[in-house]
Design goal:
Layout (H helix, E strand, L loop, with lengths): L7 H18 L19 H6 L1 H35 L4 H53 L3 H42 L6 H51 L3 H56 L5 H45 L1
InterPro entries: Spore_III_AE
Protein name: Stage III sporulation protein AE
Pfam families: Spore_III_AE (PF09546)
């Protein structure tokens, strides 16, 4: 029982994840055999860890190729700006610099939107993953006596999964996008200053993100602890009554039930640990890609600035900061998904301890 994953929906999510890995890193996964989803012993996380350096270099190479056009445009824009400043009557260079800057801004914002879409897809995959494994977690939680906890966690976690995707795509990401656009326009424009407005939007995005995380942690921890205590006291009372009401049979029944509960607790902890590792795997590769993109934008800004392209360097640096803010949003959502699984595991363990 400990080596199986019985849910078909869960295996469908894992199949989709494996397909995506082969689509993005097919040449790196040629020697890695597909594990049997119904046999946990067939998994080899060490092989995946050994492949991380190759995956990192693959992402660096791919993003260098993807962002090379933006880097070339940034250099051309800097050169045209110098031509315009050295020959003030050379209107062609001014027009060319403006066109290049607009084209650069368009490509940068398009790249930013691709990163946003990629993060939204990652959050959706994590949501599908948790929904697929939630019935199994709740079944094991009930098997250790967590009836009230299961009744609380089922609607709460489903609501959180739906709300997290909606909240990020409707509130947090649009605020980050507006901050990015306004900060980029303010950096290029010589007459309009939008620094304070951009800072305000960034602060609003961070506040909205922290507020959502605070509400989730508060509800899950406080209410989860209350339901755990309720389950523990109820099972302890039932155990006392059954042991004393029927002197011999009741004691045998209680001992047998205690053995089953301990076995279920071991299974629940094993599956919970496996789910945590899978969740980290789901978010690890997107996190690596997004972090590399943010670092490359900042590196381009560092290269362009000494050449005299202060405005272009500022735009690239602001894009890097915005992508890092999206990266932080992904980490926050991942932490909340991770915490949801951990709280379910701890809740079952606490039930046994309270008995």
């Amino acid at each position: 029982m400990m080596n199986t994953l019985p849910t078909d929906e869960g295996t469908d999510v894992l199949d989709d994840l494996w397909t995506d890995l082969h689509t993005d890193y097919g040449q790196l996964f040629t020697e890695l055999t597909k594990p049997d989803w119904h046999d946990l012993s067939s998994w080899s996380f060490q092989e995946l860890l050994h492949m991380l350096p190759a995956i990192f270099m693959h992402e660096v190479t791919q993003q260098l190729f993807s962002l090379s056009t933006i880097f070339v445009l940034a250099i051309l824009g800097t050169i045209m700006l110098h031509l315009h400043q050295s020959v003030s009557t050379f209107r062609t260079s001014a027009i060319a610099a403006t066109v290049i800057n607009l084209l650069l801004l368009t490509m940068v914002l398009h790249s930013f939107m691709l990163v946003t879409s990629y993060i939204e897809q990652t959050i959706a995959v994590m949501g599908h993953f948790l929904v697929a494994f939630l019935p199994y977690f709740l079944f094991l939680l009930v098997s250790v006596g967590g009836f009230t906890s299961a009744a609380f966690f089922h609607p709460t976690i489903l609501l959180f999964i739906q709300t997290s995707s909606w909240y990020m795509t409707t509130i947090v990401f649009p605020l980050v996008l507006l901050h990015t656009i306004i900060s980029a326009l303010g950096s290029i424009s010589e007459t309009i200053k939008l620094t304070k407005l951009a800072s305000l939007l960034r602060s609003l995005a961070i506040t909205a993100l922290l507020l959502f995380m605070t509400v989730f942690i508060g509800v899950m921890s406080v209410q989860g602890a209350a339901t755990t205590v309720t389950d523990g006291l109820a099972i302890r009372t039932l155990k006392f009554v059954s042991s004393n009401a029927v002197p011999v049979v009741g004691r045998v029944f209680t001992d047998a039930a205690e053995t089953m509960v301990n076995a279920s607790l071991l299974v629940k902890n094993t599956v919970g640990l496996f789910a945590l590792l899978l969740l980290l795997l789901v978010v690890l590769l997107p996190a690596i890609k997004i972090a590399i993109i943010a670092c490359m934008y900042y590196a381009m800004a560092a290269v362009v600035e000494p050449l005299g392209g202060n405005k272009i360097a500022t735009v690239l640096a602001e894009i890097s900061k915005s992508i890092l803010l999206l990266f932080a949003s992904l980490l926050v959502v991942t932490f909340m998904f991770f915490l949801a699984i951990v709280i379910i595991i701890i809740s079952g363990n606490a039930n046994v301890m309270l008995r």
